[in-house]
Design goal:
Elements: E1 9-14, E2 19-24, E3 31-36, E4 39-41, E5 53-55, E6 61-66, H1 67-73, H2 80-83, H3 87-96, H4 101-125, H5 128-144, H6 148-164, E7 168-177, E8 182-189
Length: 194
Amino acid sequence: MTNELPIGESKTTDETMGNSSEKKTAVSFSNIQIREYPIIVGDNPAIMTGTPITIDWEHVEEFDCSIDDYEQAKPKPRNMLELRLPARNRDEILKSQGFSLKDRQVGKKAANTTRRQRRRTSETMNLSIVQESIEKAKRAALNATIYRSRKQKEREFLKEFISKSPSVKPKTIASTDFTNDTVDFTTETVPEGS
């Protein structure tokens, strides 16, 4: 005796009742819907030369057919090399769709601009850690020297506020962190009626 079930069948056990039951589950497809979308000027910065293309949001035609007919008529899948379109072919496709030279040049310029921005962002990402460290050191130096009296006044103001507040009792005051411009207070909530 084997535990294998035919495809599409599953066995479930109701552990509380001790019963076992078999359910047949199957998935089937009968018809598919194919939509055609117009090709328009795109903005994909991965295109190194020429104008990028993409499809529009609105479809122009819609076809219904059975899954069996589709499987028999569908073309062989293309590999990545076959999916690439040279710049000249993309340009011809856009021309045949009625796009002017100016439209195609605007698309090319948008893709080039986006590509340059991404390259610049990628290059400056490496410098961000250094820039953050410089900013923290600068802020700490300013707080310890030029802004020192302002920070002291801020602490005095906060001491008065906390001492007047009945629900907040300060444990420690004046633990200042100069790296991020904050004064840390540890507070404890006093229950009402105490």
